[in-house]
TrEMBL record, chain A:
<feature type="repeat" description="WD">
    <location>
        <begin position="398"/>
        <end position="420"/>
    </location>
</feature>
<feature type="repeat" description="WD">
    <location>
        <begin position="223"/>
        <end position="255"/>
    </location>
</feature>
<dbReference type="InterPro" id="IPR012972">
    <property type="entry name" value="NLE"/>
</dbReference>
<dbReference type="GO" id="GO:0000463">
    <property type="term" value="P:maturation of LSU-rRNA from tricistronic rRNA transcript (SSU-rRNA, 5.8S rRNA, LSU-rRNA)"/>
</dbReference>
<dbReference type="InterPro" id="IPR020472">
    <property type="entry name" value="WD40_PAC1"/>
</dbReference>
<keyword id="KW-0690">Ribosome biogenesis</keyword>
<comment type="similarity">
    <text>Belongs to the WD repeat WDR12/YTM1 family.</text>
</comment>
<dbReference type="GO" id="GO:0043021">
    <property type="term" value="F:ribonucleoprotein complex binding"/>
</dbReference>
<feature type="repeat" description="WD">
    <location>
        <begin position="289"/>
        <end position="331"/>
    </location>
</feature>
<protein>
    <recommendedName>
        <fullName>Ribosome biogenesis protein YTM1</fullName>
    </recommendedName>
</protein>
<keyword id="KW-0539">Nucleus</keyword>
<dbReference type="InterPro" id="IPR015943">
    <property type="entry name" value="WD40/YVTN_repeat-like_dom_sf"/>
</dbReference>
<comment type="subunit">
    <text>Component of the NOP7 complex, composed of ERB1, NOP7 and YTM1. Within the NOP7 complex ERB1 appears to interact directly with NOP7 and YTM1. The NOP7 complex also associates with the 66S pre-ribosome.</text>
</comment>
<comment type="function">
    <text>Component of the NOP7 complex, which is required for maturation of the 25S and 5.8S ribosomal RNAs and formation of the 60S ribosome.</text>
</comment>
<dbReference type="GO" id="GO:0030687">
    <property type="term" value="C:preribosome, large subunit precursor"/>
</dbReference>
<dbReference type="GO" id="GO:0070545">
    <property type="term" value="C:PeBoW complex"/>
</dbReference>
<keyword id="KW-0853">WD repeat</keyword>
Length: 459, 374
């Protein structure tokens, strides 16, 4: 309990002080009544603001945060929408604000850096990850899907045990890597990769949490139209729709409901070489979207507008598509080839990752005449930002994975530096440790996959 | 006297000349021993490398993942690899010792694979029918490689008299040339895919040939000997021009995609830009390296860039824009020195090539590694 008797001594004042009016939008951490502007020493770091919040005011603090805990799990302070990262003195100087001014600061719970919780070992590089939440599983335990360069998919329980592994159905003359894998539902999985085919799989859970022997991933259907490798996918589970992005410069839209999906006309394909034991359904796309002039590297259903989607490409563009008219609604040229895409839904922002290691925030709604773009240069150092994932717990945060072996957490209110980093570089720096996929799950935490042949979970 | 250079407009800043490769990204690890050659495939998904370990390896370009490999032999190097131009097939030409191989790595669609087979199969028919009209069997027949290699998508093999050091395709993909510097009268070969035919149209070259290249849009052919670059008209069988780069020993040449400018690199540390509209001397001589320059390459299309590779372990990236106007000369600006390869046994970067669709280059070195620069 934070009371004045247990409060540590406020560091001695350097003389310069500023009045701050503290507010919050979150009821669970709001002060019971407005304390009015409080005086804070400007020479000290952020910690002083915490002291001010908890001990500087005369208000009786009733919420249950101990003095010790408040230091361990601190608040962030937002002034004019940006997180305060410097001392107040520096802030006042940089922004030319007089110490006479009453500063309005909003306090929010600061990001609690997750800790390494588990690693799932593979034999080869891991290219993709997805999560099925515990609420959707019979065993009430979250399941993790990984796709790897051995051309397989594995379903794991959170105790790092493999529940089920897919069969290799790629080309027999080389190991055709899996480049993308997703849960479609609690009973279906989709994968795609170097051998150009998108495969639907029926997933069956084991009987219990401890017995996974009956879990299985069984081949159900082939989705065929791409003639180069498939690099990325997005799913819209409620509508049973799938979008795929390929190095053949196209996107394809698919119906994953096999009872209504269009069947591939066998005359149009010459797949004599691809003999199969059983004959799974051969599905044709609802449409293919043409317009990019190089590999399509990322795709996303619009979180706001039905029948709209975004795609990125190594032709340097972000495109907005109408899926109903199969046309480009908006085309945004950027500086460099693009490799990663995620949406900060509530903020109406897309985050894009480039081959130069830059991350660009872009509002896809604004007209090209008034583009509002902010870019973090060299967010990752060895080129490619390979993956971006938004924080399901905050509309402001997202994680990025890069070929420099780092996973970084960013807050759009403070993009000058990352909020935290997870170092996945291999022991010997020169041996790399490229991160290929990042997924942020409300339950499981930050999952990342890469060249170190691991899925790593930080929670 | 006024220096005419001082009257020229100031060169733009390096930052204005973006994009160009500046960052070392993926590393291609797997060869044992020096990596001699590389080429990025026309789709930009794959890069093939050839090494002194006798292997060809095909890697996913972006990630550096080794996806396919074949060992052509243990004792001799794969000195050159080169993808057939165009998007209608997926054929890799490779030089191992004295032999030229045509391969179809299994990384393409069944349709593309079928098309590649058709292109390489056409010549079998030709050689059998032509043998009835000509009494002599071809001196350098195209044969099917051993069963073990055939099973691994090696399609044809032609064995010449001496070690092949370079390969160059004609843009349409039916002709390619090879150069065997010690091959004397059969040093420069021109091969016709559709006829499985190997010919030696230049039996009396003066000087030791080093490398050769087809003109990008005219029936012209460039042969670099140790000291000169000879330009021939292939239809008229005529020597058109002899360039005098002023270097003691040329290592590599690259023809600008427009066809009017030629870059040559030399073991005596020079990089020479020739404008074919000007005289036989270089328009610019560039000295940016402390050691031999082994390779030079114009970006094949879309970006006004060129890059060289040196035994000092570095690559130097330049802006090089060619203006259509005859009155205006090419603009050359050094952009970035790329460091990363380790000098190993006094050898550094052995070859460099571009991604055809992006401002990225790939290099291979004596350190056994390949590097993607983005
Ligand atoms: Mg000119």
């Amino acid at each position: 309990m934070a009371t004045s008797s247990s409060a540590p001594t406020i560091p001695p004042s350097s003389g310069k002080q500023v009045k701050i009016q503290l507010t919050t939008k979150q009821l669970d951490i709001a002060l019971p009544e407005d304390s009015g502007p409080i005086l804070v020493d400007t020479s000290q770091s952020l910690l002083n603001l915490h002291y001010a919040l908890f001990f500087g005011s005369k208000t009786d603090l009733t919420f249950q945060i101990s003095a010790e805990k408040s230091q361990r799990i601190p608040f962030d302070f937002l002034i004019n929408g940006a997180i305060l990262r410097t001392s107040l003195d520096d802030f006042l100087t940089t922004n030319g604000i007089s110490a006479e001014t009453v500063l309005h600061a909003e306090y929010v719970p600061a990001f609690v850096p997750p800790k390494h919780a588990a690693s799932f070992e593979h034999d080869t590089w891991v290219s993709s990850i997805d999560v099925l939440s515990s609420a959707e599983t019979k065993a009430h335990q979250a399941l993790i899907l990984s796709g790897s360069y051995d051309g397989l998919m594995r379903v794991w329980n959170t105790s790092s045990q493999v529940a089920a592994t897919s069969q290799y159905l790629g080309d027999s003359r080389f190991v055709a890597a899996t480049k993308a894998a997703r849960f479609l539902s609690s009973t279906r999985v989709v994968s795609a990769g170097m051998d150009r085919v998108i495969r639907l799989w029926r997933f069956k859970e084991g009987e219990s949490m401890t017995d996974n022997s009956k879990a299985s991933v069984l081949h159900e259907a082939d989705l065929q139209c791409h003639n180069q490798m498939v690099l990325a996918m997005d799913v819209q589970s409620d509508k049973q729709q799938l979008l795929s992005a390929s190095a053949d410069h196209t996107l394809a839209l698919w119906n994953t409901d096999l009872t209504t999906a269009p069947v591939l006309n066998s005359e149009t394909t010459t797949t004599k070489r691809q003999k199969r034991i059983s004959t799974p359904a051969q599905i044709a796309p609802l449409s293919t979207l043409q317009g990019h002039t190089h590999h399509v590297t990322g795709v996303l259903f619009s979180p706001h507008v039905p029948n709209q989607a975004y795609s990125i490409s190594s032709d340097n563009t972000l495109k907005t598509w109408s899926l109903s008219t199969e046309s480009v609604l908006d085309n945004r040229p950027l500086q460099d080839p693009l490799y990663a895409l995620t949406a900060l839904t509530n903020m109406h922002l897309l985050a894009l990752g480039s081959s130069k290691g830059d991350i660009t925030m872009i509002d896809p709604r604004t007209s090209t005449a008034m583009i509002k773009v902010s870019t973090v240069r060299q967010a990752h150092s060895n080129g490619f930002v390979s993956s971006l994932a938004n924080d399901p717990g905050s509309q402001y945060r997202f994680a990025s994975g890069g070929f420099d072996g780092m996973v970084k957490v960013w807050d759009i209110r403070s993009l000058t530096s990352s909020t935290m980093t997870i170092d996945r570089k291999l022991d010997n720096d020169s041996k790399g440790g490229k991160v290929f996929a990042v997924k942020w799950d409300a339950e499981v935490g930050i999952l990342s996959a890469g060249e170190d042949c691991k899925v790593r979970i930080d929670r | 006297n006024i220096d005419p250079e001082s009257l020229l407009p100031k060169l733009p800043s390096v930052e204005e000349l973006r994009p160009f490769p500046s960052v070392s990204s993926s590393i291609f690890r797997g060869h044992s021993g020096r990596v001699r050659s590389l080429d990025v495939d026309p789709s930009g998904q794959w890069v093939a490398t050839g090494g002194e370990d006798g292997t060809i390896r095909v890697w996913e370009l972006q990630t550096g993942h080794q996806t396919w490999a074949i060992k052509l032999g243990a004792d001799e190097a794969v000195n050159a690899v080169s993808w057939r131009p165009g998007h209608d097939a997926f054929i890799l030409a490779a030089a191992h010792a004295e032999s030229l191989y045509m391969l179809i790595p299994p990384l393409c669609s069944p349709e593309l694979e079928e098309a590649s087979h058709t292109i390489l199969d056409a010549g079998w028919g030709y050689s059998s029918t032509s043998s009835t009209t000509t009494t002599k069997k071809p001196q350098y027949p195209w044969i099917r490689p051993s069963a073990a290699l055939s099973a691994k998508q090696t399609y044809t093999k032609t064995t010449l008299r001496s070690t092949i050091k370079s390969i160059s395709w004609h843009r349409r993909g039916n002709y390619l040339s090879t150069v065997s510097p010690s091959g004397q009268s059969s040093a420069v070969a021109i091969h016709t895919l559709s006829k499985h035919l190997t010919q030696f149209p230049f039996p009396r070259l003066k000087g030791l040939p080093q490398t050769a290249s087809f003109h990008p849009n005219k029936p012209h052919f460039f042969i670099a000997t140790q000291r000169t670059i000879k330009i021939y008209d292939l239809t008229q069988q005529l020597l058109l021009k002899t360039l005098q780069p002023g270097a003691r020993w040329l290592s590599s040449i690259s023809i600008h995609p427009g066809g009017d400018n030629v870059l040559a690199s030399s073991y005596d540390r020079r990089l020479l830009w020739h404008d074919l509209d000007l005289d036989n001397k270089p328009y610019k001589t560039l000295r940016y390296h402390d050691k031999a320059i082994r390779s030079v390459a114009f970006h094949p299309g879309g970006f006004p860039l060129f890059v060289d590779a040196s035994d000092d372990g570095t690559l130097q990236v330049f802006h090089g824009s060619v203006v259509g106007d005859l009155m205006e000369n090419a603009k050359i600006v050094p952009l970035k020195m790329l460091r990363g390869h380790k000098v190993t046994g006094a050898l550094g970067v052995l070859d460099v090539g571009w991604d055809p669709g992006r401002p990225w280059c790939v290099s291979v070195g004596a350190d056994g590694l390949g590097r993607l620069w983005v």
